[in-house]
Design a protein that fits this description.
heterodimer, A: 73% helix, 0% strand, B: 739 residues, seven-stranded mixed β-sheet, six-stranded antiparallel β-sheet, 52% helix
Amino acid sequence: MIELPLIFVGGLLGSAHCLGMCGPLAISLSAGAPAGSNQLQRQLVFSVGRIFTYGFCGAAAGFGGAWLSNESRTLVLSQAWLAILAGVLLLLMGLVTAGVLPRPTARLLGGLPCGAAVGLKTFLSAPGWLGALIAGVFTGFIPCGLVYAFLLKAGSTGDMWLGWLTMAVFGLGTVPLMVLVGYGGQFLSVVSRAKILHVAAWCIVLTGGISVARGVAQLNPPAEAVTADCPFCEAEGQGNSPGVATPGL
Amino acid sequence: MSNDAPPRYCDFCGLPLTASFAFGHPRSKAALEEYCCSGCQTVASVENSKQENGAAAHQLLRLGLAVFFTMNVMVFTMALWSQDIYAAEAFATPLASSLRGVFRWASLLFSAPVLFLLGGPIARGVWSALRRRAITTDLLILLGIAAAYGYSVVSVVRDAGHVYFEVGAMVLVFVSIGRWLEAKGKLQTGESLDALARLLPAKVQRLDDQGNFAETARKEVRTGDVLRVLPGERFPVDGVLVGGQALVDEHIVTGESRYTEKTDGDTVYSGSLNVDGDVRIEVTAADGNETVSRILNLVRQARREKGYHQRLADRIATWFVPAVCVIAIVAGWLQGQEHGLDRGIMTTLAVVLISCPCALGLATPMAVWTALGRAARSGVLFRSGLVMERLATVQYACFDKTGTLTTGKPSTGELVVSVGESRDYVRETAAHLAAGSTHGLSQAIVHFQRQEISDWRPSKDIAVESLPGRGLMAEVADVGPVVLGSRRLMDENRLHWLDDLQPNATEVEPSEHQVFIGWDGKVRGAFFFAEQLRPEAAEAFDACRQLNLDLRMLTGDEQQRAIAIGNRLEIPTVSQQLPEEKAATLQSLAQQGPVAMVGDGLNDAPALATADVGVALGCGADLSRDTAGVCLLADDLRGFPWAVGLARETLRVVKQNLFWAFAYNICGIALATTGRLNPIWAALAMAISSIMVVGNSLRLGRYPELGNHSEAEESSDKLRSTINQKTESSQPRLVTTAP
């Protein structure tokens, strides 16, 4: 998957946007921790929890995509259409973030993260690494446009393990900034966050563009490649993907 | 379970325990902690352990950890399903086949902790129910989950057959999260009451033997103690002011939005706010018996009486559980015969999950309790949930006049005495009698006397007899029997009318009250009082009309006066009704539809008791008026339509809840018995169903507040000035004939 590095960069730079939402959770993980606990370790465990959830959701999306294309294979090339849909959404989202398109006025579930911080308080302030892990697991479920867009991308892979991989890579990309924020507090100014976000936006646009191109290519395949609709499924689906042994972490 | 058995309540949320199928008798009556569901049990253990370091977190971590393990199980299960989708590839190589085995073992490994973490609390709930000799659906759910696990373990070991670890784990997670949210929601039914209880300070300043004020717990205060209350503090108990003076905000108790000035000898109520004085009070009612506690106790009592809908739900729930057991087992057996053992287990589990009567049991009490608490927060006390159900259905509303439609405090009147009588003597004699009654006109006569002689005290030697609807009678030294009251009372006692007091000798305004006094064969004097319409009456009546209530005025007063007031409010009047006649009028009206009677609860107790729902106004200071089913703490007529609105909304919510619970159960069972419902969806639906009922009921807690005070006062001022203008322009004032 040539997008994987792009997805990683999308996650890495896109998490500048996440700092607004998930950042406070990471900070309260440090602030609420009992004295003497290893902050870096807690932050890493928290991120592992998040990646675990992203991976789980990615696997579910990938499985859903596989199931959908299997169910509808005689009707439409749903995997191709999913790729196009995910691509278009990523394009739109990237263009909106880059400021090319106007920002939609209504924000879906905008107030949720604040409520989530209250709900996760017990986990965030619990001693030991278990609380941090569980807090991370639940943080991963917080609605986020960026996550949704990449989930659609994961669904369009039409393979469970590829879906898992897509989201896990995205999650890995979000680790550095989140850990730094949680560990070192507010080190990025609003201006620098905006600049990073701008670069991230174009990464997302690029990922979307590739996804659309891939979908269109699948819709008009060269005659000999009709059955091999995803060259990676074969390779990864055989069981040699890194996902097999790791989901349990 | 017999309906006669004393109702039992959950030790956590306080809601009644869902009626369930019971066998035998509990072995001991020892105080077992009883919870209505495993959610309450778990949340209770978290709440109880909040003091202990980390124990609360421990319980939540269990749930979080179980979710984590379940997500793992789901990933492995999806991997297995993926192999089913691409079956050709999955079984093509030996590696793929052995991966399949790995996934199955991994599912077993990760689902076992879930069974231990979440099955434990449910098992404890089932065990405590069994000790109460009750069979709950939780028992069946637990058995179903255990069967699914058992079957899957055997499949893994034999390396053949389906595995259902994900079903067991997901069902446990959904049931636990659902119950948890449900328990949290249920606790909110009492939130309004807790807010009231929190008004009282926990610590008070009590005068000790050395003459110093020492900080003491409120619970240790006894009647007769002297407490110091500083400005800005709430009075912790009921008492009498024995030092200092203060402006007091009694809104919480009497609904009066203006501050009341209190000085030595005045009564103060617990919960009311000392605005500006450093005062001492002598305790008259200690903790537990003071006003706020009495209000809370009334509401708690009200919650214990089950209404019609709750009894209906209870009756159904009693046979529901055994019926579901039978349906589940039969459906499971049939499916098992046709499609194999695993399908049978799944069907049974789906049936018991989808038919869990949680929503049914919660439907009524959740809504009614939330509404009772909401009403109490706005100073409306319902004696029971049943009263609330009845108030929702009333079609007719009858109002007493004096003290209900009018302020009950007639404006300072005039006294006309017959020629030769001492004006002061007549006024004082009348005041002695009037002091023995709480009727508005009697109070006005006492007030009238105090305006002349400010330190006047009523005689303690005069025993006053009250003649309902007519007046008062007493034996006064020197003059013999004295009667004070209506024209009718004078005629009944054959008192002679002197010329200057003849009915046609004085020009009387239609809305004016006359009270006569006479002794020794003659009518000696007449008091004239102008009644003041309540400023909020017109607004309250508009609200009543919007609720399509048929309004009447029912009064013992004379026709002329009644019609004058009735016309102003545009309602039909029935006048000259003695208390027993009021009751008869209400009874005949009740044949056409449910009737509510609104009165001040003082002299219309029989009418309040006769009506389907009696509503007493302004009983904040006197909660003992229990002839009324609904008590409006505030002396504000608008509380009545507000209460009707809330009651109707509550009934609507109860019906929605019951409809939803029934419809959900019936459709769900039908779907589950055919084996088309995966237990995971059934568990999700079960959790969503209960949470919907809880959420729908908690909406009542956000029922809008009764009017905005500043607005209401503005409009009442306007209304008052219009009424006064009308009064002034109608007829010239009466001229007193001096003795």
